[in-house]
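Bit of a strange request maybe. I'm writing a small parser for structure token strings and I need a real example to test against, not something I typed by hand. Could someone generate the tokens for this chain?
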Amino acid sequence: MEIEKLINKNFPFQDFRNQQYSTINTIIQSLNSNKHFILESPTGVGKSVVAYTVTKSLLDINEINLKKREDPPVIICTSTRQLQKQYIESFKNQEDVEFIWSAQNYKCDTYYELENTDDKVYFGHSMCMGKKCPNIDSCEYLIQKNKFLKCKIGITNYQYFMNNCKLNPEYLVCDESQNLEKILGDIATIILSERSLITFSNNILRNSNSINHVGISKFIEEIKLLSVKNDVKEDDIREYVNSFIEHFDPIFEKLTSELEQRTKKLNVKDKIEREKISKLAKTQRSMESILDKYDKYKHSKTQWIISERLNDTENHKLKIKPLEVFEYFNDYIGCRVNKIIFMSATICGVNEFAKTLGIDNDNYEYLETKSIIPIKNRTVYYCSNVGSMNYKNKYEILPKFIEIIDRIIKYQFNQKSNKNINGIIHSVSYDNAEYIKKHSKYKNNIIIPTRHELMNLNDHILNKQQNTVIVSPSILEGIDLIDELSRFQIFIKVPFSFLGDLWVKTKMNKNKKWYSREAIIKIIQGCGRSIRSEDDWAETFIIDNNFGRLITQNNELFPTWFKESIKTVKV
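Reply from user aminoacidic:
Good idea to test on real output. This should exercise your parser:
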């Protein structure tokens, strides 16, 4: 069948939005010869529909035999639960689409009384009876997993996909792919912690019937030495890791065997034994994760950096991260997939993005689409004459910033006096947020949401009866404040990553473009919190002079559609 007919056949809605058809056609043509396609496309174009139509059409073109498969031939990965829900809602009427959460999100009918406790049982938990469970036929997780494995297009999150190596789709869609470096870096990160050692040692000694000695003193002393040593070398870490694996591998094997035997004999009504097994299982999973990370670290060829140290009387700790993540990208994603589509509104320099994942320049094609939102609805005002804030001048310049902030708020509130006008201030830190609230003329309108309130920010704003300004450093991603929920936003500072983190500093010294790109992604993602559709609108104000230098020195990293929305003004 011709590509044009396939696209029309597989497109799930009645009409194409502007650019959708041409984007779909371009990606299909490209993936016939390339392994990777990188799509940079702003909010409103409909990336999810593009991904669905492209992959479904490719399945038809290549005549993938679904009967021989034990997993979905197409998997779409998202980075947040909210985005996964959006996909599910968008394609709920498509019979060939299914989704899966991690097993912890499904209820267990056998251990229902533990549902909202730390001892919650789920499929795969050591207390789970698997096929021997009397409620196996009603297991919510297995029912949904079976649907997921038999569907054409499966929707899940990165963690689930990366932790399930049996999933080997023909086509993988990586949405919000600007987060891949962080996701892979978090998976790789090793934490040497005195407190963690003590915790899982105590759990073993209190709950195991076969292990009466763990022997952590040596490792605690080594962590203490490493946490105060100024010139820690990779050989020092490798020596610790090798010693840890050699010591704890036999303990882990013994623990696993004991859990298996005790679980077989477990009487569900024996609460004390059940709690012991649950705590022991949690420790066993923790040890398994640590040993797996250590093994991958031993075989890593990239440079590793101590990004954090804690030298405290109650806990000595080090956090170690790989400087590059391309090894982990290949192990967890690249080697398991035939073709990959990367999608994001903020690729922000396709060469830098590809380099991060170790993708060769001749092994991908790239497309940047235009924004369908009119420029007048998404104008970014760069206030070029206010100044820039740093650690030394912070409390000298903040009063000037607050004066500008109050003028912007007054202007916004007076635009439509008959309606509530809500907005955002991106504060970079909670310290800045508290200062703004304390000194602003509009302190009664300002809210600094807690982490819990951020999870339900839309409802939190709607419950307020007055004009509301949300001030927070934590609303750059993952929050959709549509329409009246936010009509303006203010950046008081370019959100550069913290140079006190040695990992960040080393990355910057090696590649200044990487450092700039991280800040650019945060700005553009932040600007998108308030404008979620073609008819939505909001005004953005950037009052930090560092933005001027950022765009002058890194013009090629900004998407064209974003640059066209910037207006330089003086206030």
